[in-house]
Amino acid sequence: MPEGDTIFRAARTLNRALAGQTVTRFESAFPRLNRVDADSPIRGRVIARVESRGKHLLIWFAGDLVLRTHMRMNGSWHVYRPGERWQRPHRDMRIVIETAAFHAIAFNVPVAELIAGDALARVPVLNDLGPDPLSEHFDAAEALRRIRSRSDLEIAEALLDQTLIAGIGNEYKSEVLFGARINPFAVVGDLSDDQLSAIVSTAVSFMRANVLDSASSRNVTYAGLRRTTRRADPGERLWVYARAGRPCRRCGTPISRRKQGPYARSTYWCERCQR
Ligand SMILES: [Zn+2]
């Protein structure tokens, strides 16, 4: 599922294909986008850059207009050469941005808005974002301070709160806590600064390892092969996520699973490694 690393790779791929190019066609299934496009046409604008912030993807057009999308569970951006066959059905198309060299298509993206660049800082979901481990400006001390400020939360819930640290989703949540050897149900107030630091630095190393540049991420923006174990075998790419009942890769104890938090998201952990 799209987490911060997925969006980072999507933004990088889109930026490579689109930055500096002029939009030759814009189409959308969202009436809100089409209304903005009717008033201030996207066609004819140069695409300045594409970037990620946490799980948000921002496409900047000349004239200070920004397209913000959020993929939630099933959204994705693809890049095609003109005339190339789409890998998703047309009914899943939400946004099309064409240039002379590339076509960028958003499929099943549930959240999209076109806004003025100077209004972006006032969009609460962006303005309130915590430090992003994939940003070159990542501030680990600030992430730790924000997580610490929610001493009432179980640590797995804190990691999903995008205002504390940005980009972590349900898969990284379990993987990072296994990597740091912390029980997901531990309350933040009971964890030491050293433990919180270990969690934050594990998040950074796991997420950055998944945005290394590779030939496979150049076209379809979501390859879907997130890896935290550094093992080559695709069947061994994660430590605990979606491995309930299977042996822990470190100690052999069967991996546990329990629903956690207000949204009942599945949490996976090893009871022995993460006491
Ligand atoms: Zn274990």
In short:
Helix content is 25%, strand content 20%. With 275 residues, it is α+β, with helices and mostly antiparallel strands.
Write the layout of secondary structure elements.
Elements: H1 4-18, E1 25-28, H2 31-39, E2 47-53, E3 56-61, E4 65-70, E5 76-80, E6 93-98, E7 103-107, E8 111-116, H3 124-127, H4 140-148, H5 155-160, H6 170-179, H7 193-209, E9 256-260, E10 265-269
Antiparallel strand pairs: 1-6, 2-3, 3-4, 4-8, 5-7, 6-7, 9-10
Helix pairs in contact: 4-7, 6-7
Bound molecules: zinc ion.
Residues 248, 250-251, 253, 270, 272-273 line the site of zinc ion.
Structural overview:
The chain has helices at 4-18, 31-39, 124-127, 140-148, 155-160, 170-179, 193-209; strands at 25-28, 47-53, 56-61, 65-70, 76-80, 93-98, 103-107, 111-116, 256-260, 265-269. With 275 residues, it is of the alpha+beta class. It has a 4-stranded antiparallel sheet. The chain has a 4-stranded antiparallel sheet with strand order 2-3-4-8. A two-stranded antiparallel sheet has the order 9-10. It starts with a helix and ends in a 6-residue tail after the last strand. The structure holds zinc ion. Residues 248, 250-251, 253, 270, 272-273 line the site of zinc ion (ZN).
